[in-house]
Amino acid sequence: YQNEALQVISQCGELSDIEEARIRFLGKKKGRLKEIQTQLSTAKPEERPELGKRFNAAKNAVEASLNSRKDELAKPVKQAAGLDVTLPGIASPLGKRHPISKTISEFKEIAGRLGFDVADGPEVEDDYHNFVALNIPDDHPARDPLDNFYLSVAQEGAGGPWLLRSQTSTVQIRVMEQVPPPVRIVSTGRVYRPDTIDATHSCMFHQMEGLYIDKHVTMSNLKTTLKMIATQYLGDDIAIRFRPSFFPFTEPSVEVDIQWGESWMEVGGAGMVDPNVLKAVGYDPEEVSGFAFGLGIERLCMKRYGVKDIRLLYENDLRFLSQF
Ligand code: PHE
């Protein structure tokens, strides 16, 4: 029995052959094992223990042989072309969103929950939207060629000279030129300044501008809004501070700091929109008032993730980026 079974099993070429052999040799109803078992019951009592032992040994051997042949057949076949499908594959690593993009999305979402729409404006701006309409006079130091990236293209037509915008406040003007009050928008994007690059400065960075114009908008609305944006992005424990400051396009103006280790870090500017700005876009300062703010996205992102050097955000080193 055993020899015959092992012979048949070794010739099985398919899993279905194995199943057939199993039924034939081990089947509980009509299999060969059943026959032998019936014969056993007719054996002399003194022979039974020995026969029982041999019966069990044969049964185990056939079972083991069936299982190992089955495993062999279940293994994938090596293909002639030299393709070994059992080798580990080459993983294709998934890309991730850049931390700045993630931060921008999150800010837009937070601002959206506070009722702000999203607006957009160009990175190459004219003198009018970057300075004039924002109440920045001709002789103001912010216009200094050493503090801006002016373009050397022909300055024909209205609005020249052209420059890479130094602030997203330009979008305040572009939106108010288009729509009558009330206005409640945020705008995110790149701004450019020829700053000396260090751990917290770059000649290009991102800002989120906010503008809210309506009847009876107050400074306390501004403070509440900024506090809510900061806590929703950085958590309830974040300390935020407002320092009196000056911007030509807001009055009064504040600078906004967040806690940075043992000290503070400036993350933006804000204030009540200056009546001259409202007049420049045809709004009536007697009718409406509003606030504006501009936040530095990199610094808030650095605070959130514990990034100590702003330059890491621009180097595109995968060892850094894959951590986000
Ligand atoms: N535009 C200012 C800056 O870039 C920030 C600011 C925005 C201040 C809006 C007041 C109101 O520094």
Polypeptide structure, described:
The chain is of the alpha+beta class and 324 residues long. The chain contains 11 helices and 10 strands. The strands form 2 sheets. A 7-stranded mixed β-sheet has the order 1-5-6-10-9-8-7, sandwiched between helices. α1 packs parallel to α4 (48-74) and α5 packs across α10 (297-305). It is rod-shaped and about 120 Å long. The relative contact order is 0.11. Bound molecules: phenylalanine (PHE). Phenylalanine binds at residues 167, 169, 247, 250, 253, 268-271, 292-294.
What's the gyration radius in Å?
39 Å
String of helices and strands? HHHHHEEHEEHEEHEEEHEHH
Strand content: 15-25%
Q: Tell me the number of helical segments per DSSP (H or I, 4 or more residues long).
A: 11
The strands making up the biggest β-sheet line up spatially as: 1-5-6-10-9-8-7
Secondary-structure content class: alpha+beta
- DSSP strand count: 10
Rounded to the nearest angstrom, the distance between the terminal CA atoms is 65 Å
| Helix fraction bin | 25-40%
Which ligands occur here? phenylalanine
Sheet having the most strands: 7 strands, mixed
Average residue-wise pLDDT: 91
Cofactor: Mg(2+)
Catalytic activity: tRNA(Phe) + L-phenylalanine + ATP = L-phenylalanyl-tRNA(Phe) + AMP + diphosphate + H(+)
Domain Aminoacyl-transfer RNA synthetases class-II family profile: 107-300
Keywords: Aminoacyl-tRNA synthetase, ATP-binding, Cytoplasm, Ligase, Magnesium, Metal-binding, Nucleotide-binding, Protein biosynthesis
